[in-house]
């Protein structure tokens, strides 16, 4: 029995090898169809931009070859120094001790050294309220997100007021993550922090940089009437680019309404916004955005370069030149903004104390008609100059 089985096994194995050899040497009827199908499939070339060098066309259609696309080099004018100063270290240590957050750190702001390291009275900082986790996910923002962030810290308003009163800063910006999980978007928490800070340090000027509170007019008005000096809400980009840059819940027209309602809730309140450049906007779009902002009587606008925080975020569309930033600053002035700041490294809160001095100075001049007095103010380009009182 064993003798019969072994020759049979050898014969079967031989037959299988022969069949395999025959099938590989003679084309199968299905092979031409398979090759035609492969030819119709998309290859890596189909996903490469037109500007990619022609060498990419040599990629095999039968093998996927991964290539690294070159990122645009960072222009020299966008590089900053590592921050080192006594004021910087003091602010940083106090934040850690009181478990507070700043957008300066969370959003990786390039100006942190200049703002925190300024002389006493000139240093500024941007406190981020309501935690370090946002309920929205804008494509440009480095702040972490979650559908349900941790509960609010009930001690945060008091701790924030205590920290700010220690620092000796002349101007503070309070901002926050978006908290769509809270009924009023955190407006009552925001306004309580402003009131407690003013009570502890009445000399400090406060700017509130808020979210849109989902368009809730009562929430916007509550913050606007809380004792702040400047109400800021960032448009971020033009109307055409908003769907591609911001979270779907953030609407261009809704943001305009926030700025309008804030001014309506407290007439005379300084309102401010910021626009990123380099995210695919056109000149026509930017100009139209500025005109829309003037329709709702916004006083201050800043322009800055979008810089990609990580590879997970949207790419930089273009690096805007300093000359182009100057152009938009002049356009803002021509359209009637009381103050503008425009430059590659400018951020919403950059040298925020200077803007208030400038705006208040200009308003003072308007009230001095016929007096012929002079007043020293900060110009839009950051230079201090003496302006003559306007004579009737």
From TrEMBL:
The keyword Zinc does not apply. Pathway: Protein modification; protein lipoylation via endogenous pathway; protein N(6)-(lipoyl)lysine from octanoyl-[acyl-carrier-protein]: step 2/2. It catalyses: [[Fe-S] cluster scaffold protein carrying a second [4Fe-4S](2+) cluster] + N(6)-octanoyl-L-lysyl-[protein] + 2 oxidized [2Fe-2S]-[ferredoxin] + 2 S-adenosyl-L-methionine + 4 H(+) = [[Fe-S] cluster scaffold protein] + N(6)-[(R)-dihydrolipoyl]-L-lysyl-[protein] + 4 Fe(3+) + 2 hydrogen sulfide + 2 5'-deoxyadenosine + 2 L-methionine + 2 reduced [2Fe-2S]-[ferredoxin]. Residues 119-338 form the Radical SAM core domain. Residues 1-32 are annotated as: Disordered. GO terms for cellular component: mitochondrion. PROSITE patterns: RADICAL_SAM (PS51918). Binds 2 [4Fe-4S] clusters per subunit. One cluster is coordinated with 3 cysteines and an exchangeable S-adenosyl-L-methionine. GO terms for molecular function: 4 iron, 4 sulfur cluster binding; lipoate synthase activity; metal ion binding. Keywords: 4Fe-4S, Iron, Iron-sulfur, Metal-binding, Mitochondrion, S-adenosyl-L-methionine, Transferase. InterPro entries: Aldolase_TIM, Elp3/MiaA/NifB-like_rSAM, LIAS_N, Lipoyl_synth, rSAM, rSAM_sf. Its EC number is 2.8.1.8. [4Fe-4S] cluster 1 binds at residues 104, 109, 115, 349. It is found in: Mitochondrion. It is an enzyme of class 2 (transferase). Its cofactor is [4Fe-4S] cluster. It comes from the Eukaryota. Its main location: mitochondrion. Belongs to the radical SAM superfamily. Lipoyl synthase family. This is Lipoyl synthase, mitochondrial.
């Amino acid at each position: 029995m064993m003798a019969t089985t072994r020759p049979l096994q050898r014969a079967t194995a031989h037959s299988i090898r022969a069949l395999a050899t025959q099938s590989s040497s003679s084309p199968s009827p299905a092979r031409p169809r398979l090759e035609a199908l492969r030819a119709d499939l998309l290859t890596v070339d189909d996903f490469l931009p037109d500007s990619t060098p022609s060498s990419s066309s040599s990629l095999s259609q039968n093998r996927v070859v991964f290539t690294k696309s070159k990122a645009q080099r960072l222009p020299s004018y966008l590089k900053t120094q590592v921050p080192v100063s006594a004021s910087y270290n003091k602010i940083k240590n106090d934040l850690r001790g009181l478990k507070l957050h700043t957008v300066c750190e969370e959003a990786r702001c390039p100006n942190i050294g200049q703002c925190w390291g300024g002389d006493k009275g000139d240093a500024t900082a941007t406190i981020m309220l309501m935690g370090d986790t946002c309920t929205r996910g804008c494509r440009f923002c480095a702040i972490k997100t979650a559908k349900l962030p941790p509960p609010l810290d009930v001690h945060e308003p008091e701790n924030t007021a205590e920290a700010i009163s220690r620092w000796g800063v002349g101007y503070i910006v309070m901002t926050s993550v978006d908290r769509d999980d809270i009924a009023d978007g955190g407006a009552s928490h925001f306004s309580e922090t402003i009131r407690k800070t003013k009570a502890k340090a009445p000399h400090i000027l406060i700017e509130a940089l808020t979210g849109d509170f989902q368009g809730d007019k009562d929430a916007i008005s509550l913050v606007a009437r809380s004792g702040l000096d400047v109400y800021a809400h960032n448009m971020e980009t033009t109307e055409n680019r908003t769907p591609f840059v911001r979270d779907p819940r953030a609407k261009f027209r809704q943001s305009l309404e926030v700025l309008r309602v804030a001014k309506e809730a407290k007439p005379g309140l300084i309102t401010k916004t910021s626009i990123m450049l380099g995210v695919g906007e056109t000149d026509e779009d930017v100009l139209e955005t500025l005109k829309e902002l003037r329709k709702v009587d916004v006083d201050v606008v800043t322009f800055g370069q979008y810089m990609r925080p990580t590879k997970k975020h949207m790419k930089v569309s273009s690096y805007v030149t300093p000359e182009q930033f100057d152009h938009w600053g002049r356009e803002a002035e021509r359209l009637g903004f009381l103050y503008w700041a425009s430059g590659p490294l400018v951020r919403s809160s950059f040298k925020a104390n200077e803007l208030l001095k400038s705006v208040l100075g200009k308003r003072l001049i308007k009230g001095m008609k016929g007096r012929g007095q002079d007043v020293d103010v900060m110009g839009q380009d950051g230079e201090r100059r003496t302006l003559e009182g306007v004579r009737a």
